[in-house]
Design goal:
By secondary structure, the chain is of the alpha+beta class. Helices cover 48% and strands 16% of the residues. Helix 4 packs across helix 5. The longest helix is centred in the last third of the chain and has 30 residues. It is elongated, with a radius of gyration of 21 Å. The N and C termini lie far apart (69 Å). It binds zinc ion.
Amino acid sequence: MTTTNEAVKVVAQKKAFMASSKLTIFLVHPQRKSELPHEALANMGDDQAASQAFAARWGGLWTEKQAAAVAATGQELEAIYRTLRELLQKAWRGDKDAIVQLEGMTAVNFRWHYTGKRAELVPEDLWTAIVLLFLRDHAAGRTAICVNPDCPAPYFIRKRRTQKFCESGPCVEYGARLRANKWWHEHGGEWRKKSKGRK
Ligand SMILES: [Zn+2]
């Protein structure tokens, strides 16, 4: 990464991201406002429908050339994608080895592209962009796992340090219920006494 103050633009395949030298990355094409690709991959289900839905929204993790090279070796691409997803999930849970492995993966598959005043750093495939986004958010302490045991998409990017639940409706409700129960547990006795006294 260069250390100039000039903006660095990180572009993944057809998708573009803007980044400052601090790697504050913004989606240049914010048509998917409600989703980030690293969250989407970490939460991708095991079945074929889930991986197809992911591919429909974000495209393949690798370039067609990379994917063709893998297919030529007889390995099943989807199985490899699931392996990458598992590596990302492990890192998301804080596994140090997985994080080191991901860091190693950012050493390749980038190229610099210079446009006027700006240097653009271009990941050649979506997977590299996802790794970069994850490492940026992990370093900022923003990668979190939703505390609701029934959360269907527990890997999320938190907005506040104290945020324990993702922003899906049921999880927000679950969190509110837990807080209400805790309050009742701590203050219910007092409240009952007071309301009796008022009668
Ligand atoms: Zn959740």
